[in-house]
Amino acid sequence: MKRTILFIYFLILSLYISANFIWYPYLTNQGDTYATINFKTLDKNIQVKLYENNVLIQIHKNIQNGIVNLKVKNLKPNTKYAYEIITDDDYYKGIFKTKNEQTKSLKFVVYGDTRYYYKYHRMIIEKIIKEKPEFVINVGDMVENGNEMKYWNNFFYTIRGLNTFYYPVLGNHEKNSKIYYEAFDLPEGGGDYNKRWYSFSYGKYHFIILDSTIPTKSQIFKSQTIWLKKDLEKNKNKIISVIYHYPFWNNSIYIWRKQEKKLEDTWRPIFEKYNVKLIFNGHVHGYERFEKNNIIYITTGAGGAPFDKGTKDKYVPYTKKVVYGILEYVLVETSDKDIKITVKAVGESKNFSMKDIKPVNKIIDYVELK
Predict the structure, then answer these.
(1) Dihedral sign computed on CA atoms, order 85, 86, 89, 91
(2) Do 286 and 308 touch, CB atoms closer than 8 A?
(3) Nearest alpha carbon to residue 344 among 322, 360, 364, 320
């Protein structure tokens, strides 16, 4: 009798689990005439319906279960769409907007090092949802171990409901995992699967995503740097931001947070030659801002990983702002006249312990570029 009850219990539990998305739907690779809807499910009979102004315009059937990257095409620029995902046991409705290449204003969010304190990562996500950005960039170390599926399952559950486009950066904890490449449909770039590094534009703004975890003496690093120069040359008349995981400099008390001198010697002269405006990094679990030769370097690594427990007594040169022991994200708002960068804290620990984080709602840094 007990075995029968136990069997029925696990049968019901398995049905309950299979009736939910393993990875809640999320969006990547926004274009003016296309977008990619991503999710993971073991359900069958999957359909995706696309609507414009409440009118059904596309139905996608015969979708294989597992990790799904459905690129919907033949869309109109700067247009809002709704989509439904229907399976045997589940249903989801979301929205997105195609890119407006003529826009003169843009709002986006940068944050990272989310790793495994999902409760605190979720605190940030809930704030980002309210910001309604055009897209979000994660500067890397999204998960604790990129080779283990359980961490990705938790990650995608944590960012559920974001309803905006998500652009990832490889950090050291992703371990250049195959799961990373399966999870994200991205603009074509270079390296593994032609998306280990990549770029995209939005009107007059251009964004370059690099992999700083590649050894600087390797051929693949040289290939990436050659690609970087070509991409910068092609987009030299745009306002350029570059995003990669390892910062050139940091003020962390941890001795293993080394200064990335070889990376700096290779990339910084290139950035300066092409008048790059903004650099975003992670890796250090705190917030830091540096300025050198008219480039602003922002480290935003307090997205849910354990805090670095303080700073050195003497800061490295070019340091403009340092705040540790906070959960934060960076909101960037652009217009014809300026670029406004607002760094918002959603949680704080006075002793750097993750156990002692208290919710806060405050601005910890602000920069305005004319």
Answers:
(1) positive
(2) yes
(3) 364
Please list the residue range(s) of the chain that carry CATH number 2.60.40.10: 23-97
**What secondary structure letter does DSSP report for 270?**
H
Residue with tokens 């120069």: 229
Condensed to tens digits (0 to 9), the pLDDT of residues 21-61 reads 999 999 999 999 999 999 999 999 999 999 999 999 999 99
Say how far apart CA 48 and CA 70 lie, in whole Å: 9
Share of the chain above pLDDT 90, in %: 91
CB contact at 8 A, 288 and 299: yes
CA distance 344 to 363: 5
Q: Give the model confidence (pLDDT) of 177-187 as tens digits.
A: 999 999 999 99
Q: Write the pLDDT tens digit of every residue in 288-319.
A: 999 999 999 999 999 999 999 999 999 999 99
CATH topology of domain 23-97: Immunoglobulin-like (2.60.40)
Q: Give the C-alpha separation, 133 to 24, whole Å.
A: 19
Burial class (CB in 10 A: 0-12, 13-18, 19+), 90: middle
Q: 192, exposed or middle or buried, with CB in 10 Å at 0-12, 13-18, 19+?
A: middle
Residue owning tokens 């290779």:
266
Q: Which residues of 334-364 are buried (b: 16+ CB within 10 A; e: fewer)?
A: beeeebebbbbbbbbbeebebeebeeeeeeb
Could you tell me the two tokens for 274? 């092409």
First-to-final CA distance of the chain: 74
Instruction: Give start-end residues of each CATH 3.60.21.10 domain in the chain.
Output: 106-369
How far apart (Å, rounded) are the C-alpha atoms in residues 254 and 363?
26
Residue 165, Cβ density class (10 Å: 0-12 exposed, 13-18 middle, ≥19 buried): buried
pTM, rounded to two decimals: 0.93
Question: What's domain 106-369's superfamily in CATH?
Answer: Metallo-dependent phosphatases (3.60.21.10)
